[in-house]
Description:
heterotrimer, B: 14 helices
Amino acid sequence: MKRIAVVATIGLSATQVAAETVVTQWDQFSQAGITAAGPAMDELIQTCAPALGGAEILRTVAPSIGIRDSYRLAVAAGKTPDLAYTWPAASVLSGYARTGALAPLDEYYAEYGWEHVNDFYRGRNSYDGSLYGVPMEQDLMGVYYNEALFEEHGIAVPTTYDEFVAAANAFKEAGVVPIAFGNRDRWPATNTFSLILGLTAGKQVEEDVFFRDTPWTNEAFLQAATVFQDWAEDGWFPRGFNGVGYDEANALFLSGRAAMTITGTWVIQDMIRGSDNIALGVFMLPPIADGVAPGTMWGEGSQWQLSASADEATREAAAAYLDCLVSDESQRVWVQKGYTVPIGTTPEELAEWGAHPVVHSFFEQGLATPESNFYDLHTTLPESVTQVLYPELQRLAGGDTTPEEFLQAMQSAWEAAVANGDRWIP
Amino acid sequence: MKPTTRPIQTLVLAIFAIYSLAPVYLVVLASMRSEADLFAGPLTLPWPLNLENFRRVWSESGFSTYFWNSVVISVSVTIIVLLTAPLAGFAFAKIRFRGREVLFALFLAGLVVPAPSVIVALYGNLQALGMIDSRLGVILPQAALLTPFSVFMMRTVMQDVPDELIEASTMDGASLIRTFVGVVLPVVRPGLMSLMLIVFLFSWQEYLLPLVVLQTETLKPITVGAASLQGRYGVDYGGIAAAGLIAFAPLVLLFLLLQRSFVRGLSAGAVK
Amino acid sequence: MHSPRTAYWFLAPALILYLAFVAVPIAQVVGYSFFSWDSGQLDQFVGFANFARLGTDSVFWAALWHNAVWVVLTLAFPLLAGLLLSAILAERRPNTVRALAAIYFIPRTIPLVVAGIIWGWIYNPIFGLLNYGLDILGLGQFAHAWLAEESTALFSLNVVGAWTFFGFCVVIYLAAIQSIDPSLYEAADIDGAGWGAKFRDITVPLLRNSTLFLGLYAAIEAMRFFDLIWVTTQGGPGYATEVLTTHVYKTFFLVGDFGYAAVLSVVLLVIVLSLASLSFWLLRSR
């Protein structure tokens, strides 16, 4: 707190001395919780300071969950931070880019290369032919599991969906919560459902819906919605899951009272740190529908973006600094100090840099299927659709709506958003 | 009275006292326990008191900053209201002027305006005034939203000031403002005290305005800080309880010390 | 008796503050509701087109219904409790009265955000005290995900609302009871009336005005409240605890649909102002 206050006064005097440039930076790299890469960020600010060419970083750390809303308010207030690491990516890009809040980054991509950002990620950070974001972390989803509990109950790591079903039912029989799932915060179900959707409908059908004209009320989506509701109704989730917080669900798993929890790499550091009492393992959820390729939900979680209202010098300095943050040398720091795996990092590098075995295992499995990895709903859909998805998923899991009604509600929200021009297409 | 009636009544009184206090006691209890033994042991306070959770949220989670921000915001709002509402209340109570009924009705309407219903326009205005993400952007709208209640209450209070007192002073040649400050205000001191406490209470409790206006972590008041702990602290109920206690303890203490003024203020609208 | 012009000087500070941050924004909100918006920018005049959306917005109707349920629950529980408690207290020693009134009133001083956090923890399905207590008592089958089931969420939240409100009712009723002429009770005692009869025939009728005040106060508060819901359920599960204020907040801040958020605000304002006029009229014409 104190340090921020000091820097703030420097910021004030800097406006008087025109020669000095200040880059305001918002990020989510705190010391604990989701995206807990604070130590890596601290170090990289030192490392990358020379790239700023004399400019200074004025940093604000916003909690990961809240930064999305704070950033939107800041943009609406005309106080867009010069450089921000925020989410939810593609879904809001059209809104920010169309209204000119964000600076196009094509010239910086040309200048610095940033070849490690592949076409999938470039697409997710584009709007109307221009790039607006530099994605950094990659988010994958998988199943964290308690190895000891699996062993104790004589259950092997499932390699097919049938085996997964059998495992979950076996745990339930034995009085162990099969899947620690908590959805009070409203967003966790979107991740779970995104994973089920991708493994039921596949990437191709998803793109037919998101980018073309296939309605939500198609057979594959219906199957996915039914599967998700079945998981809840078969008692695979803890009692009152819609009233259990995301952190509480993770705590339930880490305390050894649940066999699995299905979530992403964004909490991998907290998982590892909290796993003193359990043997932590990771596997990928097998394909659910016949003929669907194995894969996982893949996204950037967040991306660096530059404000259009920042002046030329500030943008130049910020881009050079950004280039340092995503450089090969920095990747190693993110991995070692931040438990964060930047885009472009290979499993071999992870092994070489001494990443935790769970980190290595997670990324090795998740990155094995780049062609079939699919979308994360609430970083892909427009906000107006997401705000329908959240309550509707609570109702679907809670048994208060049918899969058909759920998809109809999604389809009408989707049609309204498309009519409004809010749809993102790479 | 039937002999059984009184014990039953006492039981009812006791049940509601438990309803009232049990949650407060649980918070105090949780704030002094570590995560591990939250449900362990009897429901009595540890001895010696364990203040580790308080130390942690106070110095490590920024609660000293949140607390200070709440003090600054609430005191500023209180001062602004104390500088404006008594004057207006006096005018409505003691001066005849054109448009009195209309203007008073205008204020009365404001008594019920919910903050969420004006936020849509207020937000844009604050932005245009450059007050977003500044304390002033919370303080001024909050004082304004509390103005109707305060003016209404002050009018009631001022009506009880004897006209003779005011006339005696003005006949001596004192201006009205001098009379107001020198003669009227001392008479209505209990009323001012009540107003001060109520306004302080309400502005300390406010959540929505600072939630949307302030983005910088170091400017946020304790209500916003406490709410943000839920996501950040996960299952650290000890920390959350300590934070909650820091957020409401000053208000409870203030109330217990100055109960009479509080109650008079809150029931001001009801009696008349 | 005094120069009218001075009155305007006295009024000016409060009036300016009030106009700038309350009255003018209200006028703006009304104006905004007639325009279409694009990403936060005023676009074009569309008449009542935004209002027409209310008809098909099922979340709006659910929210309105929940506000109405909240009013009824508040009248049914904290108000009644306040009446009963104050009638009992009226016959106790002054020290007892003062102490208990203070105890009942303490929750009112706690910010609703904090109340929501405390009770959210009590209600927590896994780590919560309520279910823990039920399990210990062997009543585990009555355990619920109190705030997470559509059937119990609104009611459970109302228990929290009542917790912060019944003490206020006690205080208001006590003040009124203490001004009732004691000879009425003495006369009833001579007639041999029991406690229940006195409560029914003397206390309740004579407290009619306080009841009216508290009822209208509760109704208006029921339309205005936001904090409690926002920190506990954010309107969930599904739409089970959605109220008008949370719907406004989501429409404005999360979706960014400014025109429709303005419409919802106008509806909210019309309701509270109508309630306020009604109460003013009722309390005046008593």
